[in-house]
Write a structure and sequence with these properties.
Helices cover 27% and strands 17% of the residues. The protein is an alpha/beta fold and 143 residues long. The chain has one domain: CBS-domain. Strands 1-2-3 form a three-stranded mixed sheet. The relative contact order is 0.22.
């Protein structure tokens, strides 16, 4: 008889670094923040307790601002961000999270617990059940 395999949770593999921005900031400010922090996404902060978190990706800026020849200095983050962002619970089994990513063609999702944003779950490569094998582990957290 085989012993049950210990499941890996999203909490064990979520990325440890993230940077936020206000939805009222300009896209120009967001691009400068992305460059400064060497990231391709920013978490858009809640404006009030009943609000939802958002995500701003470089691809959102490219598609909705640059490709349409809009000025980054005149467009606000809230005009181009993805909101509400798809969120996962930190105790979710990584296999289910991977399936969610594959079903909705996701690359990253916010990790939220009790309404609080914790970190980002991000995979690399084509989505499948091994989607999270190349993720950066948080400091001190190893499988």
């Amino acid at each position: 008889m085989s012993t049950p395999q210990r499941s890996i949770t999203v909490r064990q593999v979520m990325k440890s670094s993230f940077h936020g921005i206000s939805g009222l900031a300009t896209v120009y400010e967001a691009l400068n923040a992305m460059k400064r922090h060497r990231t391709s996404l920013l978490v858009v902060e809640k404006r009030h307790p009943d609000d939802e978190l958002g995500l701003l990706l470089v691809s959102d800026i490219a598609r909705q601002v640059l490709a349409r020849d809009r000025s980054p200095q005149r467009v606000n983050v809230y005009e181009v961000m993805t909101k509400p962002a798809i969120c996962v619970h930190p105790d979710m089994d990584i296999r289910y999270c991977s399936r969610l990513f594959a079903r909705f063609n996701l690359v990253r999702a916010l990790v939220v617990e009790e309404g609080r944003f914790l970190r980002i779950a991000a995979g690399s490569g084509p989505p499948n059940d091994d989607h999270f094998t190349k993720i950066s582990f948080a400091p001190g957290e190893r499988r």
